[in-house]
């Protein structure tokens, strides 16, 4: 199960502080972000496609399926969400397959802020108190709200018990080149994640990559968010036509690799939206392993934002275990 992301070591803190001049002004931040190496789109897409063709043996597949289950942020983000639906989702996250107690729990339950207390209570009742509760905030999914509203949204979710906050950046500001404004937004939300006990909810920063238009913008957004203190960078809200894709996720994995090489600070990655099958999930895990290594292959550093992925993973797991698929009523329809 996910653990607390460790505080920055002295060396990492010093290396990160040495980059303070990068964010000292809008001009300095612009020069830094536009000075990042340009993305070779053809090369990026080719490498992502190549990694997607890797085959793995049956024993490795079984391991990968359990690993993917343990990395899921099981999500319901609908206007029609009810306490009953959230409780049912929590029960499923804590015990994905009632017929097989060896199935791992999911990493987190992701809900709107007003459902956080319900989710915490339901997880405790279902034996899943070690599962995190993530709340979307900052006027999710549009990000169109005044800063005081976004901060209040975040603080309310943290006060309700959220372990993680999934915020969405102001894409309009980013695409307009107002980078320092976006940086300050992330920084302030990070500060709003603080709890009275001295701890803090982890901050996942959503870019909505389908709206960022270019790979170069995805790289810039990744660095901007990490400089501002993101614990995770996340592709999408799942509410637009184009969500997580292998090339974009690969680019973000490369960004966190380069950021750690520069600063010593490790940041997680969360692709979200459109990942529905075990085959797709395993492709992403291969990509993580090949780009970042086994160290990132835990729920502390990699997550899947998904609602239907768990069902397919359970079906494939059962197929490996018994040699046949169960009927359509084997998994619940969320």
From TrEMBL:
Pathway: Carbohydrate degradation; 2-deoxy-D-ribose 1-phosphate degradation; D-glyceraldehyde 3-phosphate and acetaldehyde from 2-deoxy-alpha-D-ribose 1-phosphate: step 2/2. It comes from the Bacteria. InterPro entries: Aldolase_TIM, DeoC, DeoC/FbaB/LacD_aldolase. CDD domains: DeoC (cd00959). It is an enzyme of class 4 (lyase). It holds the Pfam family DeoC. One of its GO terms (molecular function) is deoxyribose-phosphate aldolase activity. Keywords: Lyase, Schiff base. The keyword Lyase applies. It catalyses: 2-deoxy-D-ribose 5-phosphate = D-glyceraldehyde 3-phosphate + acetaldehyde. This is Deoxyribose-phosphate aldolase. It comes from Streptomyces coffeae.
